[in-house]
User: What shape does this take?
Amino acid sequence: MEFEKYIKDNLSDQRSEIDASKMWDNVSNKIDFKKKKRKGIIFWISGLGMLALLLVGFFSFPLLFKNKSIASQEIEIKNIEASTLLTDNVLQKNTSIDPIKIENAEKKETSAEVKTTKEIKNKATRTENKLTTAKTGIIQDQQSLLTNTYENNSNSITRKKELEISNPKTNINATEISKLFIGTSSTPRNNHSIDNNKDLSTSELTNELLENNIDQKSFTLKQSGISPNIPLLLPSLLEHTRETPSFSIKPTVKKSKQTFSTNPISVALVSAIGVTSRTLTSVDPMYQALRNSTEATLEHYNIQGKLYYHFNDRWAIGTGIDFLSQTEKIEWAGTYQENINGTYVDTIYYSTNTEFTTSNATGDYTATYQRDMRKYNQHQFINIPLSIQYHFHLKNHQFILEPQLLFNISYKAKGDYLNNFGVPSKLEELQTDCNIQYQLGLVYNYSITQNWNLNFGSSLRWAPQTSLGENAVKTESDYKFINLKIGVSRKF
Amino acid sequence: LSNPKDIEFVKLLKRGERGAFKHLVLSYSSLFFTKAKLYSRNEQDAEDSLQDAYVTIYQKIDQFEGEELGRLLSWCQKIVINTCLSKYRKHYYSHERNELTPMNDIEISPEIYGQLEKAELLKVITQLPDGYKQIFSLYAIEGYSHQEIAEQLNIKSNTSRSQYVRAKRKLNELMTSYSQTILTNGI
Assistant: This one.
């Protein structure tokens, strides 16, 4: 063992003459020094993209709240109008036809009518003020609201007239009823005949509403003074007239909530399961000769969490995090023969039982390899996706087309492969690059509620991969993932 | 303790800096070339393998864990050796590593190898048949066990052991012959 020690001590750091400058020239021509930093650049680009999206999202939230406050303002206005009508209803119900009070009521009729008129006018003025304030931001919605309200009132009045005319219990025509109820009131009675096609301003519309309310109020008060055979007709008329406007509020409010500008941000969580196919596009011939393996890619699963910014109802961009895990089955089995041109032992001459000499020869010979191994390998990718969404409709069904670029930030593999000595080695030793993956997805978008959506569809992903094994054995392959996916998304 | 300059050099190298890599090539090629010659068929193959090894080193440098220059050089040497063996196997695969009848180990006299300079000793070793040279170098110089050599070369450990003994015997012959040649020439 002294010999081994002597050799190790003296030769382990022994140097030999070589032209190092020439070596550097050759090596520097083979290496692309810029490529090393490219992965870092991709990482930073994707990071900056994500940051930009977060910033857009951050600055969009105040707009979100502003829109919400406008919506709530509209609701408040509707509530005021509704309360006006409800107050009238309550007033109507509490008004009993007490004979004792009839006379007083008649006396106070004019003053009460005027007082009521004033109250309603005040309410209407407040309503108009509210409407004027809100008009700065949502004139269009306000007009549609008022038009709806007006139309309902107008319709109810028309219906009232129809009932008045067609009621079999009385022969009094509409004009007579009108005269009976008008009494001494100075309020004009021809306001029912509002032309629906008339182009009214907000103020004019408010006045029309006011006039209707005045008319209804005077109608209620007047009934206390009518003869006994006539009131039988009136409660139904009053009830009908009062209830109708109350349902004119909701549709308008709902419509304003659906306005797209209030929902620029959404989040989505998608999970997918599918199959993978792998194609070796380029391979080191030595590796190809030695491995003699069959590969079958099995299932993969994929989870994505993403944040989207919607530019309008068609286009959106998104980013987040993507995890993909793939199982791959590799089998090395059977015997494989390879014809090689090289040096081999030609003869072995034994001079004694133990002493021998060999003579080598160079030429073609056949080498035989035998393997019997089956492995299930795991490949896991973590990517940052950058995607564009295009929303489109087909027969009232909404679909989303979503191309994506996925920047790989982490790759892990567990399992075995055959190195170029034909020896099973660990996949962890492979240096694998799968910098960018490409995906195209198509999903059907189903609305569960106003904010929650269910997505289901399919996607196809292409992942070119380069692996550099021990001793610089290089393989290039394409992974193609196809999957079915389901996810939920929520708009804020 | 590691030299701070060495630590900085390793850091720059791991960062993929061109200047650091140039320093590595210019300063340590002579060291790596010695290794390459031991595991290659000839000097030309050794040079080619060393070039390939540098490319691999550059591509894998971020996988190297550590900051000591000694460890880095050791890691680089392993890549050089693997690259040479790979190249050798690719072009000159031989059946000469078949398991042979076990032979008794021999002890080489210090009088024989003591007469040789380091460079001369290296020259004699490189004259060994390729298979012998590789197994002898892996065992005696790199310090691998026969089991490790067997795994590396995809042979049985007994094959490695018996070939090593044969390599020593052959080396003994060569050194004796070399010494005699020197003496003869000297006379």
Chain A touches chain B through 51 residues (CB under 8 Å). The first helix of chain A runs from residue 2 to 11. Residues 163-203, 208-261 of chain A have pLDDT under 50 and may be disordered.
